[in-house]
Write a structure and sequence with these properties.
The protein is α+β, with helices and mostly antiparallel strands. Helices cover 41% and strands 12% of the residues. It is built from ten helices and five strands.
Length: 255
């Protein structure tokens, strides 16, 4: 495929994939504030009044809107009809967004498998299902991650090979460069895919990774899930500080 000179490798990869796939939807649901903003408009209240009612409300959770305590200022009290319908809307779909990087690939046109609609961006199609729906239906979903960093590496390689006599081959770079891991252990990781988040920059100086496997463990500890518990992270950091433990094996023929 011929791509414009201004198109990055990331965009080129997406262009190829988007011709054969569809993006996964992100279903945006009504929360307290958005429900209170939309319901009054449908009931012919003014936009300014709707914004005023929603301004001081919590974004998530809270007590049911129909059980709110009486307001000290009657002008700020939420009308009963607004409270009833807004409470019914909370948690229900508001509109469809696009899952960042998530795509579904099928062995046939996606439209023959799942409902698809055109996205706001030209030549982009999006499923009417979110990632959980896709998983329940057994669809194959891929996340296009790290394409920006791969493009940056491509530019660096081309720049180095243009301006320096020694050719740069990314495949030949050592995987155990001490200086690189020293920078990582100092949390000097801005722009490095997977280890540039605040959580990683806080964890890396404590774990002090020395090889790729250590980085895998660090990323796993910061991934949402059961390993994210503070106690789990503390025990891993403590084990790292102690060093490797002696291997214990049980004898096949105990005395």
């Amino acid at each position: 495929m011929v791509t414009p000179a201004s198109m990055s490798d990331r965009d080129a990869a997406r262009e190829v994939l988007f011709r054969l796939t569809a993006l996964v939807a992100n279903v945006i649901t009504y929360r307290t504030r958005s429900a209170i903003r939309d319901v009054p408009r449908a009931l012919a209240y003014s936009v300014g009044q709707a914004d005023a009612w929603s301004r001081d409300r919590p974004r998530h959770g809270g007590t049911p809107l129909t059980d709110q305590p009486a307001a000290t200022d009657p002008a700020e009290a939420l009308p009963q009809d607004v409270a009833v319908y807004a409470e019914q809307l909370r948690g229900h779909p508001c509109h469809l967004g696009i899952h960042s990087g998530g795509i579904v690939i099928c062995d046939k046109p996606v439209i023959d498998v799942v409902p698809v609609e055109w996205a706001t961006m030209a030549d982009r199609s999006v499923l009417q299902w979110d990632k959980d729906d896709c998983a329940s239906a057994g669809l194959v979903k891929f996340d296009l991650l790290g394409l920006g960093m791969l493009t940056a590496l491509h530019y660096v390689r081309d720049f180095a090979n243009t301006h320096y006599d020694t050719p740069l081959d990314l495949a030949q770079l050592p995987a155990d460069d001490r200086d690189v891991f020293r920078m990582i252990s100092d949390a000097d990781t801005i722009g490095l895919f997977q280890i540039e988040s605040r959580a990683q920059m806080s964890l890396l100086p404590r774990l002090r990774p020395e090889n790729f496997y250590d980085l895998v463990c660090s990323v796993a500890l910061s991934t949402p899930g059961s390993c994210r518990a503070a106690a789990c992270i503390r025990s891993c950091v403590a084990a790292t500080a102690r060093g490797p433990s002696p291997t214990r094996t049980s004898s096949p023929n105990p005395p």
